[in-house]
Amino acid sequence: xxxxxxxxxxxxxxxxxxxxxxxxxxxxxxxxxxxxxxxxxxxxxxxxxxxxxxxxxxxxxxxxxxxxxxxxxxxxxxxxxxxxxxxxxxxxxxxxxxxxxxxxxxxxxxxxxxxxxxxxxxxxxxxxxxxxxxxxxxxxxxxxxxxxxxxxxxxxxx
Length: 158
Fold this sequence. Notes:
- The protein has 158 residues and is α+β, with helices and mostly antiparallel strands.
- Helix content is 18%, strand content 38%.
- It has two helices and eleven strands.
- It has helices spanning 5-24, 127-135, and strands at 33-37, 41-43, 46-48, 51-57, 65-70, 76-86, 95-100, 108-113, 119-123, 137-142, 147-148.
- A hairpin with a 2-residue loop joins β2 and β3 (46-48).
- The N and C termini lie far apart (63 Å).
């Protein structure tokens, strides 16, 4: 049986492109996102000073745990429980919904969406804090874009 060399080359090219296509997306599995805040932010249990932080899933098996590190992953500031939340349409950028607590108070991250996904993570706060945050003005921040202030761009009612 005679095998055409063209089929072998085509098969190798296809196999290599599939291999490199899978490895190029490997960093998306933990949804690592670097976010810089110009003001302090309050997460469950603590206030983080203005700065750059890495948000990532705690595990690819449990999408409802988010870890927050310093920018170079040497200090873990928090491992937080979240619940899944949806938005009407995915964007090509990271999106964070914040609650503005008022003058002198740090903003509070409510939701975090990874680029290209409709489902994101909504941070879980104690019941009393959730009631307080429900009264605060909401702000939607799209990474590398100006601030958008509205309460329904992220489905804030979800």
